[in-house]
Amino acid sequence: MIELSPTGAFGVLRLPLEQGETRLSAIAPPRITAIAPYPGQMNALSRRLGAFPAPGEVHDGQLRLVWSGREMAFAFGEGLPEGLEDFAALCDQSDAWAGLALVGQDAQAVLARLVALDLRALAAPSSARALMGHLPLLLIKESDTRFDLWTFRSMADSLVHEMEAAMRGVAARRAIS
Q1: Last residue of a domain, one of 92, 121, 138
Q2: pLDDT tens readout for residues 81-109
Q3: Is the peptide bond before 16 cis (omega within 30 degrees of 0)?
Q4: N or C: more exposed end of the chain, with fewer CB within 10 A?
């Protein structure tokens, strides 16, 4: 029988990458659980979790709760409260998503080339869903100089390719300024 070894989403890619004033690195994959409240259970779910993120919100506590779509949140970390399945559908997404951290002075300029969002208008921390070309993206603004980018694991290579091209473009523009 063939023995398979687990690999990271970015295993064969050259990470971290540095171009100009930005650095792109893989995020160590945490446990990610999708939480979708059952109809009429939002208040009970919010009480059980302490809060359920509204659109764009990020709640940090024992778990990191990130708004990830209409009536959907991702819980990053271990230790979901007992009995949560009575109020919401839960689905382990840990192996389905891949994350990158984009850090640096030009992080917003790099992302401005790729997503149709006014990143300056987002508070920190906050989340947004966007398309990066053909890639679905969950973007978490940690600060003006750090963004966490999550996409489907199967699209990890494309995400790195798009990010590297934008990073090179911004670095080249800075070099001639």
Answers
A1: 92
A2: 999 999 999 999 999 999 999 999 999 99
A3: yes
A4: N
